[in-house]
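Form P-L/3: holo structure prediction, ligand FE(8)-S(7) cluster.
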Amino acid sequence: MQKKLLTLHDFGAPGATSFDELRKGAAQSGCSSTGGNGKSGCGSAAGQGDLPPEIWEKVKNHPCYSEQAHHHFARMHVAVAPACNIQCNYCNRKYDCANESRPGVVSEKLSPEQAARKVIAVASTIPQMTVLGIAGPGDALANPAKTFKTFELVTATAPDIKLCLSTNGLMLPDYVEQIAAMNVDHVTITINMIDPEIGAQIYPWIFYNHRRYTGVEASKILSERQLLGLEMLTARGILVKVNSVMIPGINDRHLIEVNKAVKSRGAFLHNIMPLISEPEHGTVFGLEGRRGPSAQELKALQDDCEGEMNMMRHCRQCRADAVGLLGEDRSAEFTTDKVMEMEVEYDLAARQAYQAKVEAERDAIAAAKQRELATLADETATIKIQVAIATKGGGVINEHFGHAHEFQIYEVSTAGAKFIGHRRVDLYCEGGYASETGIEPILKALNDCTAVLVAKIGLCPKDSLAGAGIEAVEDYAFEYIEQSVIAYFKDYLERVGKSEISHVARGDADIRQGAFVAS
Ligand code: CLF
Ligand code: SF4
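OUTPUT (holo model):
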């Protein structure tokens, strides 16, 4: 039986919204990850690449484990895990866990029953939602009863939803068996150091076995537990992503050693995230004025770590109650009050039909990219440029410049187009008028880019971009992203070849600080 009617009354809720109405809402809106260099299936041009079929099955619809999937599939987090057992100097416990969440954001905490109700409501509304993650607001495994109860309730109703959890790793070895028994296929461990002397600058204390440890001793225990947990998970075939926070002046160069250590223990993916340290978040690093990395510093470290291991570059440092595609935030549509009002059908067949459609679309995108790349086969130029993209998802250039909350950044050369990151920005256009912050912050965020490809842009921002040496291009509106980036690059090379334009090396760019809030 494919279709299972589930009402929220199954979880004790009233409601009246039909499945069809809810799906209309979905239609209105709008971690792998080598970005298409063909090294591995996780983010490779054709998708599966050289990944074994059983691994491909686990990653193909996971927006964090596959860069390609993140254009099409959504994840949701439920904030069922408030407690934490360590202290990180980039965290203020008034806010969500900064290891897997955007610093400075407070999520609405839920019981496991409320969380399960919410998951079914979201899955029925957003057929592209394929993954449930527990990522705070504290540590998932400092709250094991709530975390596993939530997974149990969700699996009983929606067995097709992939389960994912994020942890600082302190308690991980104790729960590996339970994680495996619950078919949790994806685990993220935040590992910022393997040298306890460096750890002592990041972690003032941990609470372990009923006592508080400080200094180097605390970080030694934490590091041993993290690496043991990683080995235990990979020995059981569970995919492990390692998150690391890049803290300039403390662990930035050390993360290359961390990368080697986790790679040798079988981690599938490494996600190096920038430190976000605004003073108003009240964290130790924020208050002492420690800065985060620039876009090029982050990219250089990711490039240095990219060998045989996949680097994740599309992380959005989401909130602990995030809902939607990685670049969007639909959490405000699913507050507890609203979810309690919904009555939904859990329609597995509709979800599978959507996923089959995405599969076909992904094949078309990959084929179009290969065709475009083939036209560069005789090109010998060594130029590399970066191009910004305005998109609201689906792998298509489909967003207006003024409506973009973020720009996706691709690096393109004769080797192809590769996703290298994203830049969050304040909306340029608010209700038909330019925003108060104006275009300056956007120019800084895109300063390393040669062009921005958009669905539409007005004359005013186009001129401002041109003044900053960034070409705004509407020619590829509603076309596939990677194919368009390569086509633009080909045209760029031709114009450089005819001396119509000069190739100019671009500068560094800002990574925007500030909380990622619902839009
Ligand atoms: Fe969530 Fe994390 Fe699972 Fe993804 S998020 S628990 S692996 S489902 Fe993804 Fe968000 Fe980055 Fe996390 S973009 S913060 S890496
Ligand atoms: Fe904060 Fe997360 Fe670190 Fe705990 S593990 S102190 S919640 S950042």
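COMMENT: The CA atoms of residues 53 and 249 lie 41 Å apart.
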